[in-house]
Write a structure and sequence with these properties.
The structure is a single chain. The strands form three sheets. Strands 1, 2, 3, 4, 5, 6, 7, 8, 11, 12, 14 and 17 form a twelve-stranded mixed sheet that branches. Strands 9-20-19-15-16 form a five-stranded mixed sheet, with no helix packed on it. A three-stranded antiparallel sheet has the order 13-10-18. The chain has helices spanning 71-77, 149-155, 159-163, 206-214; strands spanning 6-13, 16-22, 29-34, 40-47, 53-54, 63-67, 86-90, 95-96, 102-104, 111-113, 115-121, 137-145, 147-148, 168-176, 184-189, 192-198, 224-226, 234-235, 241-246, 250-258. The protein is mainly beta and 262 residues long. Helix content is 11%, strand content 42%.
Length: 262
């Protein structure tokens, strides 16, 4: 059962940049003073979503990502399930928000989408146990771990393939109070479903990931973990529109454009 308590949006509007809370009855956003990572005060200021620019839900010091973390994706690739999470990093400079454009780099000829559940850290986490991890999670969002697949294969390691500007799409909101054990996750390409799975397919669930990563590196408030992608990964082209939808969170939408310099 899903119990969605609050959906926070970080946004910019005339004379305001900050956080707001989505009114589930009408979709309007009520601005807050402060942030969901600390104390905040509700303001008597309301915004239509069509009149604002939605920003990434937070400003992480790092984005930790997990490879091969869905059972259906491992089966699709005919690979054994890993014994431990396969970790890599994406730079914060790759981050974009809802409706911002993914730029297809001229270095690559095979750029692919990877729809994912994102974990957002709420407080400093270091050497924590899995059973304590829930209290360190601020909430969840949608993510797209965009990847230059040809460069990933060519390089033999993943930094270049995963790190281009705009290759970490994230949003549209921070869902607080959501149980992530069995959420429907879908990716759409030009309106057609290309990925469809459930977070119950995760090999390493959120609490385990937060604990495992905290034993390697200290996680700070607003840090983000991309938890891996299900089966159905495929190619993007300039002119495409890719959307990642997760039950209880919403839909992250991004157009794809060609790099200015070819």
């Amino acid at each position: 059962m899903i119990t969605l308590i609050r959906r926070f949006v970080r946004f910019s509007a005339p004379n305001f940049t900050g956080y707001g809370l989505v009114d589930e009855s009408n979709g309007k956003i009520q601005a807050i003073e402060g942030s969901p990572f600390d104390e905040y005060l509700m303001l008597d200021r309301w915004y239509e979503q069509s009149h604002i620019r939605i920003l990434p839900p937070c400003q992480p010091s790092k984005i930790v990502a997990v490879g091969l973390n869905y059972r259906d994706h491992a089966r699709e690739l005919k690979l054994p399930e890993p014994d431990e999470p396969l970790l890599f990093l994406k730079p914060p400079s790759a981050l974009i928000g809802h409706e911002e454009a993914i730029v297809y780099p001229s270095m690559s000829h095979q750029v692919e989408y990877e729809g994912e559940l994102a974990i957002v850290i709420g407080r400093r986490a270091q050497q924590i146990k899995p059973e304590d991890a829930a209290s360190y999670i601020a909430g969840y969002s949608c993510a797209n771990d965009v990847t230059a697949r040809d460069l990933q294969k060519k390089d033999g390691q993943w930094t270049r393939a995963k790190s281009f500007d705009t290759f970490a799409s994230f949003g549209p909101c921070l869902a607080v109070g959501l149980c992530a054990d069995n959420l429907v996750i879908k990716t759409y390409l030009n309106g057609q479903v290309r990925q469809s799975s459930h977070t119950a397919q995760l090999i390493f669930p959120p609490a385990f990931l937060v604990s495992f990563i905290s034993r390697i590196m200290t996680l700070l408030p607003e840090d983000v973990i991309f938890t891996g992608t299900p089966s159905g990964v495929g190619a993007l082209q300039p002119g495409d529109v890719v959307e990642v939808e997760i039950e209880g969170i919403g839909r992250l939408k991004n157009p794809v454009i060609a790099a200015k310099y070819q």
